[in-house]
Structures are given as structure tokens and as C-alpha cells.
Structures
1.
Amino acid sequence: GESVGLHLPTLSVQEGDNSIINCAYSNSASDYFIWYKQESGKGPQFIIDIRSNMDKRQGQRVTVLLNKTVKHLSLQIAATQPGDSAVYFCAERGSASGGSYIPTFGRGTSLIVHP
Amino acid sequence: GAGVSQSPRYKVTKRGQDVALRCDPISGHVSLYWYRQALGQGPEFLTYFNYEAQQDKSGLPNDRFSAERPEGSISTLTIQRTEQRDSAMYRCASSLEGEYNSPLHFGNGTRLTVT
């Protein structure tokens, strides 16, 4: 199968721990942000998104935090499970008032969950 | 429901041949994107459509690459006179709304190998 974990920042955690994956975005005009999970051999899968008028959004076991001042995005995964092992990408997108409509992806972080 | 479907899953071709990669988006999705993804990297934008109109092709590497979406649904990415450097995973994604905040949904990609 395909491996997308080569030469990526890696986060190793124990099953049951909380995980925090960080992302620095580049364009201050970006106003929509998305986290994707990519398992080996598959395409990126949407996890959660957040608009720039929010600083926090929660989903099922996941929370995204947005700090526009320092252009930083984080994904928190509660009670991490082996099935969470994957590469995680953040993506940013602009709007009609600035930035680019094209979702632009960050480098990715490989999350490894040890049972 | 059915997700984004790409075909073929794998394509091996000889240098100099033309290839056509197909994407069938989620029914009703307005926007369709083509990305290319190298191992260990995030998806890199190639081109996108709203309905049948190609909105942006700034990511296409050169004029050997072209894409169409004639009826606003299925799209084809064509690479003429393939070269070894074209070898990559090509990913298609669709989203519900073109210029508003909706996440991209990716297919599993076509792995192109040029020998």
C-alpha cells in the first residue's frame, strides 16, 4: 500500500492519551480552515473545519483551535485510539475579500498510536 | 452515499504516451478539484472547476496537462507525451459549493507510473 508518512513530523502517543497536532498557516487573509486525516492507501478524509470568526470548534473526540494572531491552528484528539494513526493535514482557504479560493495544504504530521 | 470515484486506480504507461484520468464527483457537488500528491507531501493544487467552467488552472505544470468537465459532472485530466517526472498520485476532490465554505471530499486517487 501507499505510505504517506515518510519524512514527516511525527507524533507518537499511547492509546488513551490526548493528542495535539499543530499547524502554522501562511496567509493572513485565509478565513476557512480544514483538518484532514489520511490513512495509508486512501485519500484525505475530512475531519473538522472552522471559520475565521471562531476560535474553537468541537466535534466527536476532536477539537480545533484557531489563533489568528499568530496564524496557528491545532487539532486535539481526545482518548486517542489505534485507529487514529494516520497522517493529518491542515488546509487553509481564502475568500472573495482576499487570499485564494484554492484550499492549500500544509506539510502534514504523522500520528502513531501505540496500544 | 457514494463518494468521489477515480479510475483507473493504477496506471502504468510508457514515456511519450498520453493518459486520461477520470473523476466522478459526488452527485450534486458544484466544484471539482484536481490535485497531485507526492509521497510524504500534502496535495498540490492543479486545477478546479465550478460546474463545467474551469476556474483556475494555474497549478497545471505545463501545457502537456489539460482537464475538462464538459457536462459539469465527470472530469478528465489528460497528460500528453508523459514523462517520468509525471509519476505521482493524482487526486480528485469535489465540494458542494464553489465559493463558499464547504470541505473538499477526496477520492482514493490514481497512481500514475511512467516508465
2.
Amino acid sequence: DAKTTQPTSMDCAEGRAANLPCNHSTISGNEYVYWYRQIHSQGPQYIIHGLKNNETNEMASLIITEDRKSSTLILPHATLRDTAVYYCIVRSGSYNTDKLIFGTGTRLQVFP
Amino acid sequence: DAGVIQSPRHEVTEMGQEVTLRCKPISGHDYLFWYRQTMMRGLELLIYFNNNVPIDDSGMPEDRFSAKMPNASFSTLKIQPSEPRDSAVYFCASSLRTSGRALGELFFGEGSRLTVL
């Protein structure tokens, strides 16, 4: 299973872009990159996922490098409510044995 | 849409007692996952089901833990007998496979906080 490496914590000023990096150098060709976040004591919340191309939705953008060995989650205008633990996950298993294994994530603190 | 519903939200029990946690997935979803979260070990995948069939239970810590999904709208996670080290927040999540090879978004419940004294 591909492993991910994320910084333990990051800070970001409110209103600025938060760029959260993730290294997944052992990712294989058919594995997707998923991002989730967990706000204190709540269940994790899906943000975005991608395979090769960059993706954007109403919450964030996902930039995946051409070699797919790393990715960056971008929150374009961070707010205090974006303070959370962000998990970068590479989907494990073959086509019919999906599972998402959460690592330790990055604790993002957005400050005023 | 009511989302994933878990019960009870909080449970305090004594060591040796049986604990049953319940989960109602989102209607129409074909995957159901049970996770456990502690400060020490983070979020751990215990077991997951596809179309009510257990696919991977390699994360179930020991024989004291069992999970069932008798139908598409209900699943249980049972601990018998419970021990203090089982104290954790247990999350249930459901998902629907999207087209192609991607697993769809996991929708998590609010969790069941278990304390075993």
C-alpha cells in the first residue's frame, strides 16, 4: 500500500491561501489521492480526490505533480472554520477491495 | 438526507459488559466502513462491507470484536467482553462506488464515544 507523508502541523492567516503538501512517492498508477479533514470531535469530512489531473471543487483545489509522487491541497481563502486535521490518503487495494487508511495528517491552525 | 446515523452517541460501561454500536448508512450506498479513533492510534479501519458482505476485517483487533450487516440499512459493531482499552470514538461511514475505479466520497456519522471503566 502506498504511504503518505505530511507535515505534522501548519499555520495560516485568515484570508490567505493554505497550501498543504503530501508526499506519496510509492503511489502506483491506478491509485487515487484523497483528502479529508476532521474538525475537532466530528467525523472526517471528504474534501476532494484525484488521479492524475488537477481537480477543483467548491471547497479546495488539488494539485498533483506530473510524476504523481506528491500533491498539494489548496484552500484558496482560509477561514477560522478551516482549522482542522487534514488527511492525505492514497486508496489502498485493488479495484474491488477499496479501503481508505488514514495517517496522522496535518493539523492546520488558521489564525485571525 | 439524514446522513449516516450512529447510536448511541455516548456509552459508558463497565469492563466485561457487552457493547453494541449501531449504524444506519445513507440509503442507496453500497459500502459501509467501521473506524475507531483514539489519541494514541489515530483513525483505524476495523472492517468494511460491500453490498452487506464483509470484505476486509483485518483491522478488527481481536475476537472480542464482531460486526454484522444483516441488510443494506443497518450494521452493528459488537464488543464482548469490553475492556478499558476499547475506549475510543467509533465511526461508521458509508459510500457509493462511482463510475470507473474510484471509491466515492465517504460520509461519516457523528461517532459513538465509548468509555469502558
